[in-house]
Amino acid sequence: MPELHERVYAWLCKKSKGSATGKLRCSGILDKLRTDVLNDPVALRKALIQLRGEQLIDYAAGQHGEPISGFLTVVRPDQEVPSHVEAWRAVLADSTLPERDKLALQAVGSAMEGFSSKNMAMLLDGLIRLRENQAQHFGEQVFSVSAMYLMGSSKLLSSLDWKALYSFGIEIARFLPRPVYVVVGGNVEAPTAVVLVENPVSFEAAVDSVAARDCLFVCTFGFGLSASTNDYGNQLAGAVEAGQARVLSRSAGGEVPTLRDILRHQRIQFWGDLDVAGMQIFCRLASKVPDMTLSALYEPMIEAIRHDASRHPYVSAVCKDGQGRMIVQTARSDVQELLCLCEHFAVDQEFVSADDIVRLAGKPLSCYG
């Protein structure tokens, strides 16, 4: 087994991988090392002191050697940079973009293998134009948008680092990843309420319940969609933003309404996961349908999120790594209330029972805490 200071250094390198400068917040770092490496604070302090002495890390130290500065800098091992990454960096350096934009687009370089410097310059120009014009294309197919702006390629936009695109200011999730199908189930002729549902499993449970006699439930589906990346909810929001989608009926009988007709209903609600991404999806929907409310089906989830046994953190094991760092800007008090509840923990909508669906479907959420 490697020496303790080597294990600590490997841990620090891994945690600082996402930082271009190698900086890590010092707050709670000893506690995290005790959890992940070794539950021995004295030995860990000695390991940090040794690494600092070897100039592998840098920080302001306290009386016992523990970091007391706001940040700790990890001096990572030198790695050979591929030629196409160097070429992309050179193209960025020669551009007139501000430094924050150049830094944001650094990660795009990993996809530039085989591109000439001239190709890269053309791609950069396309990304700049797309950022300027993106709002007029929200709700359109990502393949069409990509071909229109990025060198005639329908696949190029989707192959670029999405975090880099977001940092640069391109809202990649606002473009539809594939042709959109909306499936409806329940009362298609004269529903008392319309409920937009984020995930297909919960949609099926709702359509199979007695609540389907009164309510019309709406969801999206398609090949290649992944619940782990909020594809269903984002596609639903994209369809509403575009105001069009192919509508198919899950229920027998009745004329299938158009999406525009569905969105004109006087009582329209949203039911999704109680997490940050779910709230972001709702805000996108409500921006196009201002009268939309949150569904009372959130009530069991609000109760569940108060208990350790029925809530989960934002980690990769539950396919929500990174959600805890998402920021949702909204003036809506109902969303703000739920964002406070799900700041650190989440509850998936599949938690809601069949009995709760029957009891609460079609009613607006009125209790937030």
From TrEMBL:
InterPro entries registered for this protein in UniProt: JetD_C
Superkingdom per UniProt: Bacteria
All residue ranges annotated as the Wadjet protein JetD C-terminal domain in the record: 252-295
Name under which the protein is recorded: Wadjet protein JetD C-terminal domain-containing protein
Taxonomic lineage of the native organism: Bacteria, Pseudomonadati, Pseudomonadota, Gammaproteobacteria, Pseudomonadales
